[in-house]
Prior knowledge:
Four copies of one chain form a homotetramer. By secondary structure, chain A is an alpha+beta fold.
Amino acid sequence: MCGIFGVIGHKEAAILTYLGIQGLQHRGQESAGIAVLSGGKLNVKTGMGQVREVFSLEEIKKFEGTVAIGHVRYSTSGTSSLANAQPLYATTSKGEVALGHNGNLVNAHFLRQKLIKEGAILTGSSDSELILHLIARSTAPSMEDAIIDSLSEIQGAFSLLFLFKDKILAVRDPYGFRPLFLGKVENSFCFSSETAAIELIKGKVIKELMPGEVVIATKKNYKSIQWKKTKEHYFCIFEYVYFARPDSVLYNIPVSLSRINMGKRLAQEGKTKADIVIPVPDSGIFAAMGYSEESKIPLSFALIRSHYIGRTFIQPFQSIRDFGVRLKLSPISSIIKGKRIILVDDSIVRGTTMRQIVNLLKNAGAKEIHVKISCPPTRFPCYYGIDTPTSEELIAYNKNVEEVCEFIGATSLQYLSKEAMEKSVDLEKKWFCTACWDGDYPVLPLSSKQQRLFSLKKQ
Amino acid sequence: MCGIFGVIGHKEAAILTYLGIQGLQHRGQESAGIAVLSGGKLNVKTGMGQVREVFSLEEIKKFEGTVAIGHVRYSTSGTSSLANAQPLYATTSKGEVALGHNGNLVNAHFLRQKLIKEGAILTGSSDSELILHLIARSTAPSMEDAIIDSLSEIQGAFSLLFLFKDKILAVRDPYGFRPLFLGKVENSFCFSSETAAIELIKGKVIKELMPGEVVIATKKNYKSIQWKKTKEHYFCIFEYVYFARPDSVLYNIPVSLSRINMGKRLAQEGKTKADIVIPVPDSGIFAAMGYSEESKIPLSFALIRSHYIGRTFIQPFQSIRDFGVRLKLSPISSIIKGKRIILVDDSIVRGTTMRQIVNLLKNAGAKEIHVKISCPPTRFPCYYGIDTPTSEELIAYNKNVEEVCEFIGATSLQYLSKEAMEKSVDLEKKWFCTACWDGDYPVLPLSSKQQRLFSLKKQ
Amino acid sequence: MCGIFGVIGHKEAAILTYLGIQGLQHRGQESAGIAVLSGGKLNVKTGMGQVREVFSLEEIKKFEGTVAIGHVRYSTSGTSSLANAQPLYATTSKGEVALGHNGNLVNAHFLRQKLIKEGAILTGSSDSELILHLIARSTAPSMEDAIIDSLSEIQGAFSLLFLFKDKILAVRDPYGFRPLFLGKVENSFCFSSETAAIELIKGKVIKELMPGEVVIATKKNYKSIQWKKTKEHYFCIFEYVYFARPDSVLYNIPVSLSRINMGKRLAQEGKTKADIVIPVPDSGIFAAMGYSEESKIPLSFALIRSHYIGRTFIQPFQSIRDFGVRLKLSPISSIIKGKRIILVDDSIVRGTTMRQIVNLLKNAGAKEIHVKISCPPTRFPCYYGIDTPTSEELIAYNKNVEEVCEFIGATSLQYLSKEAMEKSVDLEKKWFCTACWDGDYPVLPLSSKQQRLFSLKKQ
Amino acid sequence: MCGIFGVIGHKEAAILTYLGIQGLQHRGQESAGIAVLSGGKLNVKTGMGQVREVFSLEEIKKFEGTVAIGHVRYSTSGTSSLANAQPLYATTSKGEVALGHNGNLVNAHFLRQKLIKEGAILTGSSDSELILHLIARSTAPSMEDAIIDSLSEIQGAFSLLFLFKDKILAVRDPYGFRPLFLGKVENSFCFSSETAAIELIKGKVIKELMPGEVVIATKKNYKSIQWKKTKEHYFCIFEYVYFARPDSVLYNIPVSLSRINMGKRLAQEGKTKADIVIPVPDSGIFAAMGYSEESKIPLSFALIRSHYIGRTFIQPFQSIRDFGVRLKLSPISSIIKGKRIILVDDSIVRGTTMRQIVNLLKNAGAKEIHVKISCPPTRFPCYYGIDTPTSEELIAYNKNVEEVCEFIGATSLQYLSKEAMEKSVDLEKKWFCTACWDGDYPVLPLSSKQQRLFSLKKQ
């Protein structure tokens, strides 16, 4: 997953962009980058790691300029390397351009082969680079036209920010997989993957870009173009379940409320007698709030987050090699001991982490552990920007609910139904992508490896 | 404040100590250090910053040895500099020794003058260095005797770990201001400021050191000496209110439960009509749980923590210079809007942060904001290891509750009474230091500056 | 200027390449990089600065693989940035390829415009990137053919190393501006800009690539193709004068001997009475040896090199801002005082450094300072890979010898004649590029800016 | 060995001290440090490595203040660690003080035991720390008196700079083992181990401190005290042979001239037929100049220095593990081949490096290699500040000249006689320490280990 942010027309565009991508840090911690237009030249700096690791104060201070875009990345397509960090930059037939991309193209493999065959050279392994090539090859006279021209060739999930010649051009794909917002901060415009990052810099949200919409902003004003109309939208409902910040608002629905609703509906769908509701921090907090409110079982923060040490640090030492989740989460035994526990989290992927958490609670004296997941079983990979593993690695693809429950060692396990999940978000029209649960992919990927995965699903 | 941790008799003593001081990271983030006994030599590495910033994997791997102590520091006495980072190390008349100290001496000024007059050279500005000088000057024949000998000369708060000649010697001051625990991990012994750090490394707590107790551990066994008996103990109750981890247990009382009790008693002492209870994360979480449980007003996580940017980073940029707490905390407007809010935190120091938080909530649409503080008004500085400012800077020293409420802009403000706070901890004997609220200092500091502060209090 | 080095068929190819480019460090200190073929994948690491700053031991150890190429760069075309560091890497229609380039294309501007017009995207600003684009666009079936195909489109100076599919392909341009050698180390082949780097790794030189030659090496053998034949060669004679290492051999002529000869001929062309011959270290050492031998005036190392502090370090401090060359060179007054001095260096560019050196010697008590330059006056910029400034900035373009002498403050100034310089190298056929002295450029650059410089020359 | 430098009364004292210790970098590259008096407070920063590695520009800029001292260290006493880096700093009964020390105490072991017994705590392992303890314990009323008081207790080699209360106090030991100079830069005073560092910052040498002299400088003036008079001086003649910079002047004798004289006398003492004189760079350059001048055999720079890679970097790679001196020195075969060579260097310690150099020359085709050493055979360790190994490790202690010649593989080997060496320096009175050649130690060390070495010598 990735996050994108941009500012145009502000005398301190770089520091606002820096704060903006920090506000989107949860969307990607592998690499970060900022591109600034400074004296007619585009300066780009990218680096591996979190925003605060990549940029020093001196660098941000040097980034003078009134137009900037930034990006945070968690690799989904392409290997983890500096060459894939964004914003990407290129000199093209339409001038200099920088690009930040959130989402994943499903026809990347095909485009890649086509472009290489036509003589393009690819310097990274991500799909975002392909978009720049399409634009560079477009025969449209202006950059704007070339961008819109190229959009027809790409398929999949893409929210894009282009920075070129004193403009920022923002694009949302026709299905609307990933969010994108236009805002105002002081007298300048800003763009962000989520509303929370706009509010962080004291900005106001002007509007959410609709699927198929392009917004072109200059320092003075902006215009909107509906470059493509589609009857159906497929917004990623997992943004509500887990990915987006709880203080963001998507399609006018507050993320926090949708999560609270999921928790309530979990309680409605399966009544369980218990003493306390414990969220897995931080992913399960809001669903746990809803569960507690609905079930009248008290909410308790009996699992707390610890300082985290990376795997590479643990591995060399025999005595701590198996500590696992214990280094991330601490149970409060005095609360847990002898209790019947409702444990709430957003999802189970491979099952190994949840098994360790259940075990931690058992060792802390829990009498019963009822695991409640605020979405249906995750059974299929995401081709639209979330880094889920293949079906073979997803525990719910290989096991039914009882088997998963047995694997994680819980007293009981309950998933939220798809209907309840959708109702929790309460959009007027239920235009969601729910492929990771039901395998109904709105846009089909094309690579042979992906084809194989599809056939797996049909079995 | 500081945290100390040690391991003796374990073949991977250094990595356990590394994890141990990470588990105590909340007690001090200014500097960190580890001393390891390796081939008969003491190796010490200290550095500024958090544990994970100070030590690389390579360094921890090189720290071979079966005895180690570690320290995390937040400066309370002495300026913030590498020279004051601990463990301190010295070659003395009794051999090599390393020292980690949690607490603050009240007769440091006097000892400093005395030692310098006698020809000692001081290389830092902290009080802990003085302890090593006293030991070096002791005429007692052994290190053990010299340490116990020297303890009679120091006054104030001190939990100490000494590492020397294949032994760890742990000391707790006669009043018991700061906690200290002995534990067992596999077949080795460990020491820790808090129980949570022992549990982090899968250890078991053997016992809490009592005030005036010394425990001397070798690889094979340990012995306990009551080096001084005092009728009265003065354990820092603020450890329950704020400082210790919620998953630690002090004097057999779980910290989490004492905080939940404080929240319950807050609700009992002052009934307030409201829609939701919001904790200031993470300090107000457990008191908020108690408040919610007692008042039946739902608990809501409508303030969430953000990534933090340091002051030095913000200062150069005009447009974000005043962002303040906004960069640390984000309100969830969709929850807050139109609500009557109970806002729970552990304390108010200068009042400026709370004023900003109240303002954040107002801007997010809160209808009423009732601030609930889980201890009495903080009016006096701590001389025993907590970095509270002088009385002049403490808002509750200068203003009464109504005036503080007006300053922070809240609808109402309620502090927990001292009696309710003490009952919340529920120790059989109520042996607490409560000086920061009532100014009753169990041990008197001696410097002229401190004397002035005392006289201020009397006014 | 740049240096290139490669190894194929050696189990420790990366460390040998690391040493190889360190042996070529004098050819470029702005950036460094290594590409290694590892398990069928090309791994590339580049960084700003010297070789030892760019690569850690850990990184070199991870670079497993039996084929590697490396590059050191001093920017001549394209700005100084990480995007321009080499080896360049791309995925193309012919597979993955890495490229290291020494030299400068004169039709880069034209190619750049053409490629961009055709839809290419350029990610850096150097000319080397263009070569990869030409190859990618070639319709030739194999990489080898595509490379040779593309060579016909590029004009100027280019010695190239391509790494692709278990092969290294080495190219020298038809005029032979820049050197390139094939060598053998143990049972593997290596390539290097200079012989000294081959000897550094205990290798033997097999042959120098001739102008217009391509050598394709696999792990087992190599083959040579004369891809283009030209009647005339234009080897950069400045490689003998200054650029190459004194322990290298070019066209079978040892660089050290050619420099000694230049010194001898300087002494023959202009007899000067003096007490000692002082070289400017290290550039003037070998010419000074020759001058001393011929003139029988003793050689003296009365100027010694100091530790160097960069300009950015000096600038903020008023009291040292004007120290200039004083921080790089120290005169030994006891030797210099009262002496008539022959000061030998390889060239004068802007004249400011030489003026400072003459001034240093004057202040150290020199009676007379006779400056001897081992080549003719540098009057024209180099378009073939050396970073000389424009004619306007070259002091010898604007002033005659007497005026230059006056500017630098010397007692007298003598340049070596072009004929003597050429005789000093003593090649059978005098196939040299001497454009920086006489403006006779063998291949014409095409950009408008360069055209202007040509017209300047004609005046 | 170490270097010390200080400035008092200059508004940019820190940057001048930074340059000063860079000018003394050859005297120690293990650690570096600067102490600055700033607003009445002493700020000290030390670090491992060379000066430019230890200090960033930002740090130097922050070091405001008009008084500063600096130090570079190569460990001779005490292990290599940050705790031993200087300037040392302490708060004492006489106030705050910083100390830089060049030299080595011979009664350190005794003082160490005495001080520890008296209750001192030692934080490092170097002898310099002991001096601060003696001062702190002195009953003299002022710092000045306490310093002079303490000097009577220390024995051995010591040139010292103390910074305290707006003064710099410089001390040279009664035998004058190590040099120390007072200079003037603009209107301020400076101190330096060598004259070259004073000239580097455009200062003028005022005077060399005489053995037993103390100079106390304030911002306005200085005064000199002869704190101890001794009939005999023992200046380290190895400073002339190798250690000092060639552009320094010691006891009014230019170091360069003394080295040239040594080379001349080498030629006089042993006539050898040869074709060229090659210096080992940089240590043999000036003696080679003298040898060439006297013998009329031409001087040739046929060995050149390369970029250096550390041992840790080489070790992991099998193919380069044995490269040794080849990575530091490159022979120019075209000059060397078939020649009879005079190879000049300053000394042979263990013999292994010289053996590798001789071997390099042989492989480059040398016909004969006559090694000329510009001092007598080094047979005894230095107790006065130079890091020579024990006698057992010194090749000339174990072997006679013929055997050493055989070991290094040279055609012949000649050492300069002690008389010729002394005459080369040409001091009026020959007050030299020549212990490393003849074992006549002017001041006796006292440790048992050192006693054993003495007895070894007597055999």
